[in-house]
């Protein structure tokens, strides 16, 4: 298997097609099967997603953006398929469970529902005051040094409070909300 390279992918040639298939097809089918009841439907969604990407020939800045685009597209196509089909074999709760996370029409902007933010801020409100203060500044994009200066505390104290806050959130948030938090904060 070739090393994944965004430069090869964005050439949109035979090597790009091979690389996309080798690196993503199996994992995307498995991911789609979390939403859909059968492998055939999951494969159809993944093939449709890859074909759509190929037709658009998007220029993506890096492999992280490519992965995000593929996984979000597969999830959205699965949810659309569930909505369209009123078949009893489909899993109706999957729509409501994952509907809160979706990609906007331009496929560049992640839209988080109010429920995700509500859950996050409920947890933040339960943190000790100093942890909460540090964590909110982290969410604003401030660096440890900036936080330390603003609060007149040592950088090590900032790191400790940040670690404790993240441990608290890991313990108390569901996996999807926590994953979205990591994307939002870009901390890990």
Provide structural commentary.
The chain is mainly alpha-helical and 188 residues long. The protein is 69% helix and 3% strand. The chain has helices at residues 6-9, 14-32, 39-56, 63-84, 93-98, 114-125, 129-139, 144-151, 155-172, 175-185; strands at residues 101-103, 110-112. Strands 1-2 form a two-stranded antiparallel sheet. A hairpin with a 6-residue loop joins strand 1 and strand 2. Helix 2 runs antiparallel to helix 3 and helix 7 (129-139) packs across helix 9 (155-172). The radius of gyration is 20 Å and the shape is elongated.
Structural key phrases:
single chain, 188 residues, mainly alpha, 10 helices, 69% helix
Helicity, as a percent range: 55-70%
Shape: elongated
| Poorly predicted segments | 87-114
Structural class designation:
mainly alpha
Radius of gyration: 20 Å
How many strands, which pairing sense, and closed or not: the largest β-sheet?
2 strands, antiparallel
Provide mean pLDDT, rounded. Answer: 76
- Please count the beta strands (DSSP E, at least 2 residues each): 2
Q: Please, how many helices?
A: 10
Quick recap of the structure?
With 188 residues, the chain is mainly alpha-helical. It is built from 10 helices and 2 strands. Strands 1-2 form a two-stranded antiparallel ribbon.
